[in-house]
Design a protein that fits this description.
Layout: H1 3-26, H2 55-59, H3 74-92, H4 98-124, H5 129-145, H6 147-152, H7 156-175, H8 183-196, H9 198-224, H10 236-249
Helix pairs in contact: 1-3, 1-4, 3-4, 4-5, 5-8, 7-8, 8-9, 8-10, 9-10
Length: about 260
């Protein structure tokens, strides 16, 4: 993989990440995404020098140049993560030909959707329907138009992977009346199942539960000095993290491929 392409992909990712921040912040607020960016504290319209991904935050020491109010770390973190994910996707799924290019584009689009979903879920503890439905639709479409699908074809098991993996999450939501898990997580798993398939999808879910347990308990204890069983924890970002660990690095905690072959 050409180093210049990876550098370009990182820069492009940070620029798109800056836009994704705007989408995540303005989503469901009634504000459009076409308006000029401004300081949330004093209302100052930001210049292009103040909108350079990551660098502007560092140069301004994380504060507004006019009122000196603190700027959320969300901005550089999302920009950096978008850049990193773009690099990993271009490296793992290089667009060396048309069919591979389709796969690369689909994964980049999915990454944009999932970054916004993650930020929104962390801030509001809810997964927006328009975004998760779009993710599911793109994942399902990938079964038929993705590079690998066009070469090897699509099986019924791949189509059923989404509903099979989502059913337990939907059941937990239904029988707990939403107290244990939100329905948004089931919708998210639906798309993950279509994207990864049964074996990889199960591995992603198991990884998500393990990571969520370790991080959540450590975080709650560090901030509150005790674990509160009824503390609401957004699970969507952990599912997404588990998905990427499997998709980009092939990480597996169990191999069930023989059962689904």
């Amino acid at each position: 993989m050409d180093t210049l392409l990876l550098i370009f992909s990182f820069i492009a990712g940070t620029i798109i990440g800056s836009f994704l921040n705007v989408v995540a912040i303005r989503f469901n607020t009634g504000k459009g995404i076409n308006g000029r960016s401004m300081c949330m504290a004093c209302g100052k319209t930001l210049t292009w020098q103040e909108l350079i991904p990551i660098l502007s935050f560092l140069i301004q020491s994380g504060s507004c140049r006019k009122c000196r109010s603190k700027i959320s770390w969300q901005y550089p973190v999302v920009e950096f993560l978008a850049g990193v994910f773009f690099v990993l996707i271009f490296y793992t799924f290089p667009p060396v030909a048309l069919l591979q290019g389709i796969t690369t584009f689909i994964y980049l689009l999915i990454t944009c959707l999932l970054l916004v979903i993650s930020v929104y879920d962390i801030k509001h503890k809810i997964i927006p329907n328009p975004l998760v439905y779009t993710f599911g639709a793109v994942s399902l479409l990938n079964l038929f138009v993705g590079g690998s699908s066009l070469i090897h074809g699509t099986t019924w098991l791949a189509v059923l992977a989404g509903p099979i993996l989502a059913l337990p999450f939907a059941s937990i939501w239904y029988f707990s009346k939403g107290t244990w898990m939100g329905l948004g997580d089931a919708k998210l798993v639906l798309g993950i199942g279509w994207l990864l398939g049964l074996n990889e999808g199960i591995n992603a879910i198991v990884l998500a539960f393990w990571i969520a347990a370790v991080i959540s308990i450590a975080w709650l204890y560090a901030t509150q000095k005790k674990f509160k069983p009824r503390t609401e924890i957004p699970f969507g970002p952990y599912l997404i993290l588990g998905m990427y660990l499997v998709l980009l690095f092939g990480l597996q905690v169990m191999d069930l491929s023989l059962l689904f072959s």
